[in-house]
Automatic annotation (TrEMBL):
Keyword vocabulary terms for this entry: Nucleotide-binding
Gene3D superfamilies in alphabetical order: P-loop containing nucleotide triphosphate hydrolases
Origin species: Rotaria sordida
AIG1-type G domain: residues covered: 10-190
Family named by the database record: Belongs to the TRAFAC class TrmE-Era-EngA-EngB-Septin-like GTPase superfamily. AIG1/Toc34/Toc159-like paraseptin GTPase family. IAN subfamily.
Domain of life from the UniProt record: Eukaryota
This protein's name: AIG1-type G domain-containing protein
Gene Ontology terms, MF aspect: GTP binding
Matching InterPro entries: G_AIG1, P-loop_NTPase
Pfam families (alphabetical): AIG1 (PF04548)
């Protein structure tokens, strides 16, 4: 704890003995979760490990099985399930169904329905694993079981995986590839609790019998249930088509908004550039006018100084002439005075 911020949760659910811990170890590629064949549950607390596939980190949660004989254990397991969903609400849910001689166990359906009612599961984010299937199963087993499961769960199951019994350690590699591929194809979603898990130990036998009766009905009316499953599949495909169309339309609208935004930004940029060009032209015109005015004033000043110097020179010339004439007059008067004497 806590998991990586950008990790996707893989919450493994199912009843005790379904093989959750074993499959968790197969997915991880290592023996991280304790598992063995015994009557009592092996996993009694939520276990957590991280692993990466194609650059994406996945947080693998191994959750205790829901159904137990004592109500106290059931309530503890409810809390452990709640812990995993609160710890990692954005997740893929991997639900493990055990099989008795290839037949879906009734108690697994009871547990699934209880969890699905509390945390509504999505067909896109749900991975269903039918575990420990005989490799030599009949050719129609998978199609028949898909119809049965879809009818029992009332869901289309696009991510359904049949896990063969493992007789040799080398067979784990192909099973791991199968599980990882199925998990990575599922789409994680935020799982929100809409109510508490409602499951009482005293009611389990009754609920299990109801599922057993329902399975008998499926066996007796296979064609009608097959058509019902086909309807679920078509509804899923129609929702997918509508979702793709909505996403396409949203993408087109987003692109149109982005084009409009770019056009507005380009228009604003052109307006800004035009404003700057006009301001620069006006500034240059003002500067030219200012230079012209300064040059005119400078010419006027130079002309005034030139005129003043000319007037001063003229004044000096007249003064000098007057002084010369005065000097001549003075000499003439002196000469006249001498003659008179």
């Amino acid at each position: 704890w806590p998991p990586s911020d950008n990790s996707v949760g893989v919450i493994i659910l199912g009843n005790s003995g379904a093989g959750k811990s074993f499959l968790g170890n197969v997915i991880l590629g290592r023996e991280a979760f304790k598992h063995q064949y015994q009557v009592d549950a092996v996993t009694i607390k939520t276990e957590y490990q991280e692993s990466s596939y194609n650059g994406q980190t996945y947080a693998i949660y191994n959750i205790p099985g829901l159904i137990e004989a004592e109500q106290e254990r059931i309530d503890l397991n409810k809390r452990e399930i709640d812990v995993s969903f609160r710890q990692h609400p954005n997740a893929v849910v991997l639900y493990v169904f055990g099989a008795n001689n290839g037949r879906i166990r009734n108690e697994d359906v009871v547990a699934f329905n209880a969890i699905n009612t509390a945390y509504p599961l999505s067909d896109k984010s749900l991975v269903v694993v039918v575990n420990s299937v005989n490799p030599n199963r009949p050719n129609d087993y998978e199609a028949t079981t898909r119809t049965r499961l879809s009818s029992l769960l009332k869901m289309h199951l696009p991510h359904l995986c049949f896990a063969n019994q493992i007789n040799q350690p080398s067979e784990k590699k192909s099973l791991r590839e199968q599980l990882v591929q199925t998990i990575t194809c599922a789409m994680p979603k935020i799982h929100k609790k809409v109510q508490e898990i409602n499951l009482q130990a005293a009611e389990i036998s009754k609920l299990t019998k109801q599922i057993a009766e329902y399975q008998k009905q499926i066996d007796q009316h296979r064609e009608s249930y097959r058509l019902e499953v086909e309807k679920l599949k078509k509804e899923f495909e129609e929702r997918e088509r509508q979702q793709i169309e909505r996403e396409r339309q949203q993408k087109a609208e987003q692109e149109a908004r982005e084009r409009q935004l770019r056009a507005e930004m380009e228009a604003k940029e052109r307006e800004r550039a035009e404003r700057e060009r006009r301001q620069k032209a006006e500034q240059e015109a003002r500067e030219r006018q200012l230079r012209a005015e300064m040059e005119a004033k400078e010419r006027e000043r130079a002309e005034r100084e030139l005129q003043q110097r000319a007037e001063q020179d003229e004044f000096r010339r007249r003064l000098e002439k007057q002084q010369q004439e005065a000097e001549k007059e003075r000499k003439r008067l002196e000469d006249e005075l001498k003659r008179l004497k």
